[in-house]
Specification:
- With 115 residues, this protein is α/β, with parallel strands linked by helices.
- It has a single domain (5-114), classed as Rossmann fold (3-Layer(aba) Sandwich).
- The chain is 37% helix and 24% strand.
- It has four helices and six strands.
- The protein has helices spanning 13-25, 36-46, 62-70, 88-96; strands spanning 5-9, 29-33, 50-54, 80-85, 102-105, 112-114.
- Strands 2-1-3-4-5-6 form a six-stranded mixed sheet, with helices on both faces.
- The radius of gyration is 13 Å and the shape is globular.
């Protein structure tokens, strides 16, 4: 049986490393994109089972990246979990846009999740 594949779209190298350690320990294969311009190409290349998408990215925020995913029939079916720094304003913004799955990150890689 092959491991599930997760694409992590995150510009912070420390957070990417934290995700990699956590997910590999739980038998997931991880792939990375550090900005919005490489996110779509990495998703096409690896065909992940899940995408964890940071909302605050250089060269276009996560909402722009999601629009690009949704505009591609092969990528539109991949579930996306949003990730953002745990601030009240960012959380309110995500909720106002009806984000279905959200991971809130902090420097210590403590995360919370809501649906």
């Amino acid at each position: 049986m092959t491991n599930k594949k997760i694409l992590i779209v995150e510009d912070d190298a420390d957070v990417r490393l934290g995700y990699q350690i956590l997910l590999k320990a739980n038998h997931y294969d991880t792939f990375f994109a550090a900005d919005s311009s490489s996110a779509v190409s990495e998703a096409r290349k690896h065909k992940p089972d899940l995408i964890i998408l940071d909302l605050g990215l250089p060269a276009g925020d996560g909402f722009i990246v999601l629009e690009r995913f949704r505009g591609n029939t092969n990528l539109a079916v991949i579930p996306v979990s949003w990730c953002l720094a745990a601030t009240c304003m960012a959380t309110r913004n995500a909720r106002s846009r009806r984000v279905p799955r959200l991971l809130c990150k902090s420097r210590g890689m403590t995360m919370s999740c809501w649906r």
